[in-house]
Amino acid sequence: MLQQVRSRLKSVSKLAYVMLVSVYCCSFTAKANLFSEYQIVLPFNLTQPVIAANILSNPGNELLMLGVDETGQRQLAIYALDNNNKFQLLDQMLLDKTLFAFDVGDVQADGLQNLYFLSKEQLLQYQFIGSGQTANKISGPVMAAPQTNNIPRIKNSQSSLLPISKITSMFLSAQADAIVAMDFARDINNDQFDDFVIPHFEQLNLYLSTQQAGAKTLTAQTLDITSLLKVDGSEMIFQARELFFVDMDLNTSTDIVLVENAQLRVFQQSTNGQFNSTPILLPLAADIEGINWWNKIEADGQQLDQSQLKHRKVEAITDINGDKLPDLIVRFTQSSGVLDRTNDYEFFYGSAKQGSLSYGLNADTRIQSESTLSDLKWLDFDGDGKQEIMLSAFDLGVSQIISALLSSSIEQEVLIFKMDENNKFSAKPTASQDVEITFSLSSGRSGEPMVKAQDVNGDKLKDLIFSEGEEQIRVLFASTDGKKIFNKRAEKYKVRVPKNAKSITHNDVNDDGKMDLILHYSRADSAELLNKIIVLIAN
To answer: Is 399 or 259 the better-scoring residue by pLDDT?
Structure first.
């Protein structure tokens, strides 16, 4: 949503700005014991949001922190709560500049997760070796062919990154300018071991865990899924296709789905855990696509004409109405100009006939607004098995831009839509929360609002968590009276809030059934905060 705000403001003014977000509610009560606060000070500055994952055998989840020190050396630090409820450093490694991406996999058969890195030609797995310990056998699958030696980059331990597979990727440089989060590790063949999905220019490369001679190994496979190519003068940009991992043939096994040419190309999973090279095709309405409109070009090489824009794009494939069948969420964008654009959301429910899945040519229900809708999220707030839809709404025509430039603020709402007994979304939201975005014309850095729907008090219902300025987090707890989604009064907690909401992650760190918040600070904040992490453990 902020990308759209930013692009429209630039249409009126080329001045740079930074967006700071404040969320206002009608009333609140102070509750100092809402969270227990912990602070971690690192010997380096963070460059990525903190990831919480269960990669070691100690209780709870560990905090994984990546950053650089004052010399530019990349580092990984791992912290966890000890028996005295204090965060302790478990491991710290120096990371090589050949690494360009990292990811944490799904929960494995042993109940743990694994941390992986990618270099130009190798997939590597983090191997923890504590003080006085010997190397443990890698818990995940490895390639049958022997790999090169371990690549240790050690500071405070004997841990290492163990190469588990040679790979072919679109990353062609021997060294990377940064290590970024990338979604490439997931269990897609349902055997409780991670598989790896790595896009390439002319095909999709899969490295699949399989059983061979009683041992788990990785088997390489390619699928005919090419990357998108966008040419702009002398610049050529390759972009990985958006893929969906869903059971589309109703046999409980995950398939790989690509939206292309008004149809779903479904690469079915076979009984051996690999995927059929020839996809089955499920037809959709003629104007539904799998590419965002801003990535499409006309015959003259220019972007689509926004004065007559109508574009439908699949945003998600997931069960919305609780019938255990995958449904389509489609974003319908209409525009008569840069400053006159709306996004509606349409929902096509899956229908199973004789074991085959199909979708209608017309939406079964939709969410519409005269404002521009964005920031789509789907969550089951009340535990009834049906998904509620959470969206942000804003108006930004010429008059709103002029007002924004004068007042340094833009009005926004967070809207929540609930399905009725006929699986239709009502025209008006079930709940809403006013949001005010303020910005400064003196800086080019931007922030995002912090709005999350997570269970903070352990009652299995989603609570609404949001920031109030730069000094406060508020929580609207889920209502249990069955009449409304949230309580009327919000509880607050005073803390230094990062200006960029992407710097705030959530996880049940201590495994008590309550969602905790992890705050780190970015370049939008003060420089002295870049090596500090605040962990708010829900009480």
So the answer is: 259
CB 200 within 8 A of CB 172: no
Mean pLDDT value of segment 257-277: 95
What's the CA gap between 213 and 204, in Å, rounded? 27
3-state secondary structure of 402: helix
Q: Which residues contact 472 (CB under 8 A, 6 or more apart)?
A: 492, 493, 494, 495, 497
- In the chain, DSSP finds a helix count (H) and a strand count (E) of 2, 42
β-pairing, 288-289 with 309-318?
parallel
Nearest to 143 by CA among 171, 162, 170: 162
H or E stretch covering 401: helix 398-407
Torsion of CA 415, 416, 420, 424, to 10 degrees: 60
Query: Residues 220, 206: contact at Cβ < 8 Å?
Result: yes
Biggest CA–CA distance in the chain, Å, is 71
* Amino acid at the residue 473: I
| Whole-angstrom distance, CA of residue 285 vs CA of residue 425 | 21
Q: How are strands ordered across the β-sheet holding 160-166?
A: 160-166, 122-127, 115-118, 101-104, 180-181
Nearest Cα neighbor of 203 from 224, 184, 187 is: 224
pLDDT of residue 279 exceeding 90, the answer is yes
Q: Closest Cα to residue 290, out of 269, 265, 267?
A: 265
Strand partners, 438: 20, 409
Indicate the average pLDDT of the chain.
Answer: 84
Q: Is residue 57 exposed (0-12), middle (13-18) or buried (19+ Cβ within 10 Å)? A: exposed
Among the ranges given (124-133, 379-388, 514-523), the one the predictor scored with the smallest mean pLDDT: 124-133
CA atoms within 13 A on the CB side of 405: 15
Contacts of 483 (CB under 8 A, 6+ apart): none
Cα first-last separation, the chain: 32
The answer to whether the beta carbons of residues 183 and 103 sit under 8 Å apart is: yes
The closest of 456, 462, 479 to 381, measured between CA atoms, is 462
In the block, tokens 């490895």 appear at 142
Could you give the CA distance from residue 44 to residue 71 in angstroms, rounded to a whole number? 10
Whether 92 has a pLDDT exceeding 50, the answer reads: yes
At 398, the pLDDT band (50, 70, 90 cuts) reads low
Model confidence over 433-481: pLDDT tens digits?
Answer: 876 565 555 554 555 668 899 999 999 999 999 887 778 898 999 998 8
CA 358 to chain centre: 28
SS3 state at 339? coil
Confirm if 5 and 12 have CB atoms less than 8 A apart.
no
Query: Which residues fall within 8 angstroms of residue 159, CB to CB, at 6 or more apart?
Result: 91, 93, 126, 127, 128, 129, 152
Nearest to 538 by CA among 444, 448, 488, 473: 473
Cα separation, 438 vs 459, whole angstroms: 34
Strand partners, 451: 466
225/222 Cα distance (integer angstroms): 9
Name the residue with tokens 């095909």. 203
